[in-house]
Specification:
The protein has 239 residues and is of the alpha+beta class. It has helices at residues 46-63, 99-105, 134-140, 145-167, 213-216, 222-232, and strands spanning 3-9, 13-18, 23-28, 31-34, 39-42, 70-73, 78-82, 85-86, 89-96, 112-122, 131-132, 171-182, 188-191, 199-203. It binds cytidine-5'-monophosphate. The site of cytidine-5'-monophosphate has 14 residues, from β9, α2, β12 and β14.
Length: 239
Amino acid sequence: MEKLEMLYEGKAKKVFKTSESGTYWIEYKDDATAFNGEKKGQIAGKGTLNNEISAIFLSLLKEKGLDNHFIKKISSTEQIVQQVEIIPIEVVVRNITAGSLAKRLGWEEGKELPQTIMEFYYKNDELGDPLINQDHIAILGLATEEELADIRNQALKINEILNEYLLNKDLILVDFKLEFGKSPAGDIILADEISPDTCRFWDAHTKKKLDKDRFRRDLGNVEEAYQEILRRIGGSVNV
Ligand code: C5P
């Protein structure tokens, strides 16, 4: 398989065409951004760490019967995925108050939510990814009612699988963001990445933040936190 021209460069990844139809070649970058691109930086080794971490989570989900775009890892920073058309909705699932939810409700961070909360954001850089609801999704034509129900079900299943898996590693899954895509056959499958860039992970005992909040809030030891996540989920730390 050959890497062909670049199709898209995002904040944390590049997407290339490949010589094999139906696939994309993804390259994970060390670049880090926060607050809709206002804060920019680099996290040493992040591309390598997130490529491995995401490969582990996406493989786990496949094993548990949750289909997704991951095919295989091909280098320390690259993986091959199934070609899908990304649905421009960021799906956020929350178990504990943190980040923008804590701010929106005026609740302190770290409270266990009485029920899992799901939020949808319109993936649109110019608008700053605004929070949207099912009616907005309908009028924007982003997904049909059935498609959104499918997305909801998958997101809840992913939450269950990851929660259980991470608790066994002494990690709390506070919240996370998912993106879904449509396959050429019209199926909606999980795409993008699952990593400390897109999830909040806290140590179950100390509640230490082991995710991108260390970068967002200038807490230091960002790379070490990502390495710790990889170590706990059984990946190699010799990256
Ligand atoms: O900032 P907020 O509290 O809304 O983030 C909720 C979750 O979604 C966090 O785990 C964060 O890492 C993730 N997220 C993301 N990409 C965004 C916005 C949020 O991965 N553009």
